[in-house]
Design brief:
two-stranded antiparallel ribbon; 6 helices; mainly alpha; 67% helix
Length: 159
């Protein structure tokens, strides 16, 4: 008699499942069902086989979860190398964007929010200020301060 135990309806995709985990899962499930069918003994060959196959399965699953980014990148590279462009773009679309980092933690070896902000500030200052301004910056600030003082005086006298 074969006992079937239903699992959850929706499962997260685990990169590396087919290559690393699937065979261990099949063995662990068969050992578990065999162990259940003989009455769940606490010792003996069936119990030891169930425990060891379950441990091997959990170890393989933990490895895949800890190395998820590497395994996912490896699968992308394999699709590109096999010239399977449709599968490559399908897997890129299926990648969960909410798992992606929204902020960079390191850029060009620079770490920290303020250091990264200063890096980009200096980068764009060099990029947009590659020509001499001949004092245009100071003239702008002088006109700006004059405008602010004029605007402030106008408001103060109108009240």
């Amino acid at each position: 008699m074969m006992v079937v135990i239903a699992g959850p309806a929706v499962r997260d995709q685990v990169p590396g499942w087919n290559d690393i985990v699937e065979d261990k899962h099949v063995l662990a499930r068969e050992a578990f069902l065999n162990w259940v069918s003989i009455g769940k003994p606490r010792q003996g060959t069936e119990c030891m086989l169930m425990q060891r196959s379950r441990a091997a399965f959990k170890l393989a699953l933990r490895y895949c979860r800890q190395h998820e980014q590497f395994l996912r990148a490896d699968a992308f590279a394999k699709n590109v190398a096999d010239k399977n462009h449709n599968q490559f773009w399908k897997s890129v679309r299926q990648t969960r964007n909410e798992a992606a980092s929204k902020h960079a933690y390191s850029i060009g070896g620079i770490v920290g929010k303020s250091n990264i902000a200063n890096f980009w500030k200096e980068h764009y200052e060099k990029l947009y200020n590659c020509l001499p301004d001949n004092g245009a910056k100071e003239k702008f600030y002088d006109k700006f301060h004059y405008f602010l003082s004029y605007y402030y005086c106008t408001i103060m006298y109108s009240v």
